[in-house]
Structures are given as structure tokens and as C-alpha cells.
Specification:
- Helix 6 runs parallel beside helix 8.
- This protein has two domains: 2-161 and 326-378, Medium-chain alcohol dehydrogenases, catalytic domain (Quinone Oxidoreductase, Chain A, domain 1), CATH 3.90.180; 162-322, NAD(P)-binding Rossmann-like Domain (Rossmann fold), CATH 3.40.50.
- The chain is of the alpha/beta class.
- The longest helix is centred in the C-terminal third of the chain and has 13 residues, at 327-339.
- It is globular.
- The protein is built from eleven helices and 17 strands.
- The strands form four sheets. Strands 3, 4, 5, 8, 9, 16 and 17 form a seven-stranded mixed sheet that branches. Strands 12-11-10-13-14-15 form a six-stranded parallel sheet, sandwiched between helices.
- Helices cover 26% and strands 22% of the residues.
Length: 382
């Protein structure tokens, strides 16, 4: 089969790999029909995640058709169209029993923190991902779900990570009716978080970024106010003035490890690898939220130390909530929202790239070329 293969930072190619076999009675092999490149894939591409091994196939957002099932799989059969959450999880451990599918204890030797994620380094279990023609899906009775007949394929693809994560970011903010919500980052997760904030009763939604084409999308897709942090003297002062000098009620960090906005933080994290990620967005959120407010973090960070203003958070009495999104927990409500027309997930898809050209897709997305917001990978585009 053809698959995207990691060869080192900024170096990926399409190679021939063996079609993955059934390794466990509860496995399924899925023929991938659509995959996507996620903003957090760029952390791998840029060499920021520990233990990202040469030869790995990335891709934690994918849908496909079941090609083969192990002997104990009961819920799926060959030919089923399935959407697969980015979390690999067992469904029965201490954490899965509490709905914390992103923290499953049985799928990752390093599961003291994160559970397992498809195509996301050996820190997250070492599972090959879906930027390929075929992928092995463990615990096939637990994770994958049949794509509803009425659902568009690209909408289903967005529901494997980006939309649930944005929705979860708004959910973690515990938004109350009328709240002012500030979203840092106008990538796919930030756009979905901003849109979801309205569904939860926000009275005002402000999106902060420095790329004008993404801010335009935040205005049209998420109906949010926008601020270009590169065009104001101090984003924190701006946010205070915009909120009667109190601060936002809820701030959502939808940026993660590669936040721009502070040269030293960016160099020490992205270039020198001295931090688990540039904490610019978290620190801006800590400074921009009101006293007693809530910060939700769904941007991805590495497991190392990051220079976060913890004293300020403590003294302001802030609530910080964060996790890898338990995707399947979000699906019932999100399916309703999509079916009823409140959300059209594929409105943010800007690029459709054949698997053969995935290196170019990564470059366009990484370098923010061609107004790229969300690239979809098509394995069998001829």
C-alpha cells in the first residue's frame, strides 16, 4: 500500500508499506477513503514531539471502509463505512469507564498521562495513522462508528478530531449564558470552538490570531469578533479594554505548542526544544481572563516543562481545564447539531490533496500558504 512516511523534521514522503495485518482478534483493517492533516500533525512534522520515529505514518483523522475484521469483532463487518475517533481506547479500564477515552490505561506503555493516538509518535503508543491506503484499528468494537447514511464524508472526517475537540474546548470552559469567550487561535479547532461557544450560550465571542485569512473565516464561519494580535500594541491590554477592564469570562487556548507572538518563547520551544511548547497562548489567556474565570486548553503540547504564569493563575483564582478530547463522548450531541444544520463541519475545508502529493500538502499547511485552513488527503485520487 502507499503511505505517508516520516523521515525526520520537515521530511516526509510517500512509500510502499505492507498492508497492516490483523494482530489481535478485536482488530479491524480499514481502507482509508479520506484523511486529514491536523494542526497537531505539524508539531510532529516540525520535530517537536519526543520519540517520533523514522518510518512512522502520521494521521489521526480518517474515515474509511472496513476491509477485514478479527474473529472477535461483533459490531463491524467488511464493507461498513466507518468514522474512527483519534483516540485509541479499550472502553473498559478505570479511565474509559469514566468517559476519559483520551487517557485510556491499556493502549500505551507511556499511559501515565495521555492514552494512545493514531499516528502520533511512540509517546502516544506508536500506532501508525491513517495518511495511507490502509490502517489497523485496534478495539474495533469500541472506537469506530458507522457513518450515518445522511452524513457527508467530509463532515464525518471533521468529526474524528477537529470538531469534537473545538466543541470540547467550549464545553471545558463551562460557558454560562451571556459570557464573553475569547478563543486564541483561528485554526480549525479554534473556529469550531468559537462556533460551539454560541451553542452553549455565549453572549460574545472574540477570536485572536495574526493571519488575516483565518480571522476572515472566524468572522464568516463562526460569526465572531476578531483581533489581529500583530496589529495591536499589547493583546492583553486590548482584551482588558474590550471587556470593561475586567477580562473575558472564558479563554480557550486552541493554539498549542507552536504559538507565535513571543520570539524568545518560540525559539526556546520550537527551535531549541527547551520547552514542551511555546506557552504564549496560555499566558495570554491567563492575563486576559477575568479573576475567577476559566481557561480551557485543547491546544496540543509536548510532555516537557513549559514556562507558564502559574502564580498569576493562582492569585487570580482561575480554573484551568484541559485534556485530549474524548471524541466518542461528543458524537451524540454533535450528530444532532450536524443533522439539524447548526453545524456544517466541512465549511472549513480549503484543500483536497491526493496522497501522492502529501508532502506538498504539509508544506502548504505548515507555511500557511494559499489561505490554507484545513487540508484533506484523498488516498485514491486518480
Amino acid at each position: 500500500m502507499r503511505a505517508m512516511v516520516y523521515r525526520g523534521p520537515y521530511r516526509i514522503r510517500v512509500e510502499e508499506k505492507d498492508i497492516p495485518p490483523i494482530e489481535h482478534p478485536n482488530d479491524a483493517i480499514v481502507r482509508v477513503t479520506l484523511a486529514a492533516i491536523c494542526g497537531s500533525d505539524l508539531h510532529l512534522y516540525h520535530g517537536m514531539m519526543p520519540d517520533t520515529r523514522v518510518g512512522m505514518t502520521f494521521g489521526h483523522e480518517f474515515i474509511g471502509v472496513v476491509e477485514e475484521v478479527g474473529p472477535s469483532v461483533q459490531n463491524l463487518k467488511r464493507g461498513d463505512r466507518v468514522m474512527v475517533p483519534f483516540n485509541v481506547f479499550c472502553g473498559s479500564c478505570f479511565f474509559c469507564a469514566r468517559g476519559l477515552y483520551g487517557n485510556c490505561h491499556n493502549v500505551n506503555p507511556n499511559a501515565t498521562a495521555v492514552g494512545a493516538i493514531y499516528g502520533y509518535s511512540h509517546t502516544c503508543g506508536g500506532y501508525d495513522g491513517g495518511q495511507s491506503e490502509f490502517v489497523r484499528v485496534p478495539f474495533a468494537d469500541v472506537g469506530p462508528t458507522l457513518i450515518p447514511e445522511w452524513m457527508d464524508d467530509e463532515d464525518a472526517l471533521m468529526l474524528t478530531d477537529a470538531l469534537p475537540t473545538g466543541y470540547f474546548g467550549a464545553q471545558l470552559g463551562e460557558i454560562r449564558e451571556g459570557d464573553t469567550v475569547a478563543v486564541f487561535g483561528a485554526g480549525p479547532v479554534g473556529l469550531y470552538a468559537a462556533k460551539s461557544a454560541w451553542l452553549m450560550g455565549a453572549g460574545r465571542v472574540i477570536v485572536i490570531d495574526h493571519l488575516e485569512y483565518r480571522l476572515e473565516k472566524a468572522r464568516t464561519f463562526a460569526h465572531a469578533e476578531t483581533v489581529n494580535f500583530a496589529e495591536v500594541d499589547d493583546i492583553v491590554v486590548y482584551m482588558k479594554k474590550a471587556t470593561e477592564h475586567l477580562g473575558a469570562d472564558v479563554c480557550i487556548d486552541a493554539v498549542g505548542a507552536e504559538a507565535d507572538g513571543n520570539f524568545i518563547q518560540h525559539v526556546t520551544s520550537a527551535k531549541m526544544k527547551l520547552q514542551g511548547g511555546s506557552p504564549v497562548a496560555i499566558n495570554w489567556a491567563i492575563d486576559s481572563v477575568r479573576k475567577g474565570g476559566t481557561i480551557s486548553i485543547v491546544g496540543a503540547y509536548g510532555p516537557m516543562f513549559s514556562a507558564i504564569k502559574f502564580g498569576d493563575a493562582m492569585n487570580k483564582g482561575l480554573t484551568l481545564r484541559m485534556n485530549q478530547c474524548p471524541v466518542k463522548r461528543q458524537w451524540p450531541r454533535l450528530f444532532e447539531h450536524v443533522r439539524n444544520g447548526y453545524l456544517k463541519p466541512n465549511d472549513i475545508v480549503t484543500h483536497r490533496v491526493p496522497l501522492e502529493h502529501i508532502a506538498e500538502g504539509y508544506h502548504i499547511f505548515s507555511a500557511k500558504l494559499d489561505n490554507c485552513i484545513k487540508p484533506v488527503i484523498v488516498p485514491n485520487a486518480h
